[in-house]
Amino acid sequence: MSTLSPRAVLVYRESDYERLVAAHGSHKKAAFSLKAKGASFGGSDLDGPRERYEAQQEALRQVGAAIPGHWRRVRVRRAELSRFLFEPDDLVFAIGQDGLVANAAKYLRDQVIIGVAISEALGPLIRFRPREVKRLLASSPKTEARSLVSVKLSTGQSLVALNELFLGVRTHQSARYELRIADSSESQISSGVIVSTGTGSTGWARSIHHARQSPMRLPSPTDATLAYFVREAFPTEKAPRLTEGLLAGETLHCTSRMLDGGVIFGDGIEADALRFPWGVHAEIALAAHRLQLAVA
User: What is the distance between the alpha carbons of residues 30 and 76, in angstroms, rounded to a whole number?
Assistant: First the structure.
């Protein structure tokens, strides 16, 4: 049994204001440059980005003040997540927007994550305001298990995502691959394949579902079910059959037939993409673990 005190991990995203000031060397130089270019961010020059930065810093301060004094604590920027070592008993705070919870999710196993807003506006994953954190910790947060989607490549690489995985070409070229589910298989040319969780069914998958007026019921956020969609499947010798469906325990198999540019990435983060060149085989299914999201 560990004798260490609990640890709170505060995850946040580097703000637009910080990046602008870093790029130009100072607030004054950044404001002058933006004014010269005719840019305005909801106010005079840097007013908008600076106000959002100050709101973020205040949220970080309030969350830090709500954490018991004997706890350990650490701040982690989104860009540092891939290098950060989470401990099994960490309590993770994602302070920002819904996307930050998805960014952190693939690095967690059974740790509880608490989404904290930097304004009054909440979201599907960001459920709490900074002033509510002290009360939440006093009563222990109730959690909701969210399914994740996992891909394993024949190269040994793997990736998990909270919302969806995209398989296709990084550019706008057509993706070529062989798709197989159980005993059904076919070669396809399309704009790529989306495999979505119930959490992701409110985003990209919902857009595709609505556009094609699909009668298929999308999974809910807590369902142990995935939905897949083939985007703009090109009819070759015959009309493609495997263009959408649900995966409730089944595995979607995909073998690349792309000479160049084939990728797989999760939650829209192309920077973390896995290469998916000709001959590489991918197995997509529900991840073995689920995200523990604080909801009340």
Answer: 25
Helices (H), the chain: 16-24, 27-36, 47-66, 98-105, 133-139, 204-211
3-class DSSP state of 268: coil
Question: Phi and psi at residue 294, in whole multiples of 5°?
Answer: -70, 130
Cβ-Cβ contacts under 8 Å for 239 (sequence gap 6 or more):
none
pLDDT at position 39: 54
Contacts of 57 (CB under 8 A, 6+ apart): none
Here the tokens at position 158 are 């793997």
Q: Is 195 helix (H, G, I), strand (E, B) or coil?
A: strand
Nearest to 152 by CA among 143, 144, 161: 161
Spatial distance between the Cα atoms of 293 and 296, rounded to a whole number of angstroms? 9
The H or E element containing residue 285 is: strand 281-286
CATH numbers and ranges of domains, the chain = 7-141 (3.40.50), 149-288 (2.60.200.30)
C-alpha closest to that of 230 among 214, 248, 251, 249: 214
User: Which residue shows structure tokens 């997540």?
Assistant: 81
The predicted model scores a pTM of 0.88
**CA 159 – CA 176 distance, rounded (Å):** 21
CA distance 236 to 52: 50
**Tokens at residue 266, please?**
């999760």
Closest to 104 (Cα-Cα) out of 126, 123, 133: 126
What is residue 147's predicted lDDT score, i.e. its pLDDT?
96
Please give the average pLDDT of every successive group of 10 residues along the chain, which has 296 residues.
Answer: 83 87 78 67 67 94 96 96 95 96 94 95 95 93 96 97 96 92 94 96 94 95 96 85 95 96 94 95 96 95
